[in-house]
Amino acid sequence: MSRSIKISPSILSCDFSKIGKEVEALEKAGADYIHVDVMDGHFVPNLTIGPDVIKNIRPFSKKIFDVHLMISPVDKYIKQFADAGSDIITFHPEATDNMGKTIDLIKKCKKKVGVSLKPKSKIELIKDYLKQIDLVLIMSVEPGFGGQKFMPEVLPKLKELKKIIEKEKLNVDLEIDGGINFENSKIAKEAGANILVSGSTIFKKNNGDLKKNINLLRQN
């Protein structure tokens, strides 16, 4: 089943002094989702935003808030992020002692469930849960910092997941995040990704022409 390509700009690359306006501009420029990277300085070596920021920017856009939790332990924060206005909540298998319980917590909040695999994380970690989730996020950089270089070695993992999803006729999106630009977006899509997360490329290329950059990523 072919899925339409969606673009999820990462606000990690936006101007944080006017974050609400940046989110508004992304919606006007044709973004499908708004990607929010949440880092705790513990699970990954960087610290970003918490639920209060999501709550404050929520009124600036009706788009799906695609929230990637790089925090551990993840369970105790899920309700806060759900209440703040997240639509998709993505977590890492390594951030929980019980994947099934974490999935249930997110579903109980009536949110879509995403699971993320770091470059070295194996598909086996999530294989048994694919029927219960909505999205797999493949990290094509080591999580923790924006502006890193794309790692093509994660593409076979994407291809394998695509095969499993098609064979079992599962309704699961495949998202890729990390160093996505106009050059590698094509191979990411060919490998099976239907949601592309991009920060630096969207905010910085072509003099920051958000609409042009979103369209280029979608069409390349």
Quickly list its features.
eight-stranded parallel sheet; 8 helices; about 35% helix; about 220 residues; alpha/beta
Straight-line distance between termini: 20 Å
Rg of Cα set? 16 Å
**Discrete helix count:** 8
The level of helicity is 25-40%
The major beta sheet can be summarized as: 8 strands, parallel
Order of helices and strands: EHEHEHEHEEHEHEHH
Choose one word for the global shape: globular
Derived structural class: alpha/beta
Strand runs, count: 8
* Unreliable residue runs: none
Q: What value does the average pLDDT take?
A: 95
Structure description:
An eight-stranded parallel sheet has the order 1-8-7-6-5-4-3-2. It has 220 residues and is α/β, with parallel strands linked by helices. The protein has helices at residues 19-28, 51-57, 75-84, 99-108, 155-167, 185-191, 200-204, 210-219; strands at residues 6-9, 33-39, 64-70, 88-91, 112-117, 135-139, 173-177, 195-198. The two termini are 20 Å apart. It is globular and about 45 Å long. It has eight helices and eight strands. 33% of the residues lie in helices and 19% in strands.
